[in-house]
Specification:
Elements lengths: L3 H4 L17 E5 L4 H16 L9 E6 L5 H15 L6 H8 L2 E5 L5 H18 L5 E5 L6 H10 L13 E5 L7 H14 L5 E3 L7 H11 L13 E9 L8 H5 L2 H19 L8 H14 L8 H4 E6 L2 E3 L2 E3 L17 E6 L11 E6 L6 E8 L19 E7 L3 E9 L7 E9 H5 L6 H11 L8 H20 L7 E3 L7 H8 L9
Parallel strand pairs: 1-2, 1-4, 2-3, 4-5, 5-6, 7-12, 8-17
Antiparallel strand pairs: 7-13, 8-11, 9-10, 11-12, 13-14, 14-15, 15-16
Helix pairs in contact: 2-3, 2-14, 6-7, 7-15, 10-11, 10-15, 11-15
The structure holds 6-O-phosphono-beta-D-glucopyranose.
Length: 517
Amino acid sequence: MLDAAALNNPLREGLSEARTVQSCIMVIFGATGDLTQRKLLPALYSLAADQPPLPASFTVVGVARRPWTNEEFRNVAKEGIQNYARQPYDDALWESFSQGIFYEQVEFDDDAGYRRLGETLDRLDHERGTGGNRVYYLATAPNYYSDIVTRMGAAGMVQRTTSGPSWGRLIVEKPFGHDLSSARQLNADLNQVFKEDQIYRIDHYLGKETVQNILVLRFGNGIFEPIWDRRYIDHVQITVAENIGVEGRGGYYETSGALRDMMQNHLLQLLSLTAMEPPTGFHANEVRDEKVKVLHALVPLREEEVAHCVVRGQYGSGWVGSEQVPGYREEKGVAPNSQTETFVAAKLHIDNWRWAGVPFYLRTGKRLPKRVTEVAIQFKKPPFSLFRNTGADELQPNLLSLRIQPNEGIALKFGVKSPGQAMHVRAVNMDFLYGSSFGGEPPEAYERLLLDCMLGDSTLFTRRDETEAAWTLVDSLEDSWRLAPEETKVQSYDPGTWGPHAADQLIERDGRSWRRL
Ligand code: BG6
């Protein structure tokens, strides 16, 4: 028999229509922050405007320290929805949606505040018919997470089931800890109050359509999987490039850097989806079992390898087009001698049968030439060169690029004969573009993830062991930086370039080069 989550999992063929949620209250801790206004409320509004819509009784309770009224919170919500929601703003829909938005001021260390909040939630359950179902969303600064959950538990606000007549679930925003030991501690704290199957650790990359499509491309087609291994693939490149700087988040970024902000979560998620074995079914645990095996198989770098396998960069000041931009060290909240990396490139190996000897080159950074995320599968050259002196030898071998964003799509590069009497071979692209094939805008990542949580489907959320395995790798990189500080010190790069020169050397040393994107 299929469980509720399986029935609601659209990756299961034929079951894609059953996406109707039970009504609930979403309680957002950190409601006055940017994430709530730019992402969460617009995503909820778009879900309310979607088909099937969220139930009319769906309720949001914003919780934070500022003394806002319901009215003030609704105004901020309205502005966020008008500016950022995928679905167009509609007065009538806003009228009904806003009736379900409330605000409660709570100091995060004040037990009385949680008891008051609990009473408000009980009252709203009664008035709005939300049946005691709750999604709690932690969107505060991460140092409050443990305390909030512990006090919620003490106030008796938490249902100990993820399904049933009255359920409770917890969504945790990133960063989930800042190293392995803090992540373990946080997991232990959360598990005091919530069971593992009630905890939804969010990585918004998993909510992106194109990221989910990595699984469909690999396991929904017969032609790719037989060649998806060391016999045919030369290497894999994963790029997550941003053209923006730290955008006023210098204070946070100083404690994180590109390694923690992007590599620990988004890049390693892309890597595990690309490298995992086929799961036996599309259920939360089967998919995550396979992903976590990849993370466990990542080979920690040996001390003598670090200098060659990891590069850290930091953007300096300069011009991007006609705009003059500050260097990272001049950003608000950043130390003038900061050693925090805004760029990181690494060469990793996965120690298993499928990937033995296939390097995975990863890079991510801010103030790079453009915003682009791509997974590129570089195939090997044909074993024998039949078309010598025809241009074929100089051709790049086949390449499959999964363009995650923007211009979402998939392209396969291969050689063809140029028309004419002579035998000339040229590389061409076979291109699939989401925009042209499907039109319209796909749902935002947060829409998908919030809905999945309300449905009780945790396939696209990170499990405890996955988070800890990712931190194990990140810790090993950091340790090696400490062991070889000179060789791995952060190198400056000009804004609008692809990072420090050493990043090119990292891959060129192996006779390969980064994709020109
Ligand atoms: C966030 C990081 O997780 O992802 C940000 O904290 C980064 O620093 C953002 O800008 C990138 O997300 P996206 O969806 O724009 O690629």
